[in-house]
Amino acid sequence: MIVAKGAITDYIPHREPFVMVDNLLGATRERFESDFKVREDNVLVQDGYFQETGLIEHIAQTCAASFGYLDASEGGEPKVGFIGAVSKVLVHELPPVGVTIRTVVTPMHQLGNIYLVKGESSLDGRILLGCELKIVVSE
Amino acid sequence: MYANDVKMSWEEVIEETRDFLSEEFEVDRDSILPENSLKDTLDLDSLDYVDLVVLIDENLNVKLTGEDFKGIVTFGDFYQLIRQKLAL
């Protein structure tokens, strides 16, 4: 683990109740990895399950935390980013309250300040949701 | 050059490029002409340029950056850029 839950908000602009990433497990320019425990009071839980929107937001915040961590590691300031587009979403199952999901994000292309990334969240080795995101990072 | 492991002439590269651009951006293939505007014809916004870069990489194995697009207005300009990258 490179950033623990208590310090994650040092690297992302999000604040409770909209923090959707717990621990940053790894971050290189080629691969980001995080985890997140689904709690009953999460605003994106419905009928006992973390919704697709929550999983996509979790993947986006994994990117935000990783970019922030890498920027800070290189002596820069974390930048604000936002989701520009979501595509190729495949939902296999939704995680129930109480579990901890794990997410891997792979940056695929960069054009200026826009990053195309592929994200996949899983639970006990089973893929929950995969998608591609265009993340726009402020310059 | 080689695209998808098949040796292609420059003319074939252009025709293949017209094929995948018209399919991906859902525009009439006949509108993809050297004198026409790349941005206007494909109706590109800044996010769409990422899709264009991905397409060119996947189909022609050419990697483009944001800097490469400076001065690119028409398809003719764009083809020349690709040709330079392919060193043809």
Automatic annotation (TrEMBL), chain B:
InterPro entries, alphabetically? ACP-like_sf (IPR036736), PP-bd_ACP (IPR009081)
Q: Residue ranges of the Carrier domain? A: 11-86
Under the heading Pfam families, the entry gives: PP-binding
Superkingdom, taxonomy of origin? Bacteria
Q: Which PROSITE patterns match?
A: CARRIER
Listed name of the protein: Acyl carrier protein
- Species the sequence originates in: Dyadobacter beijingensis
* Gene that this sequence comes from: acpP
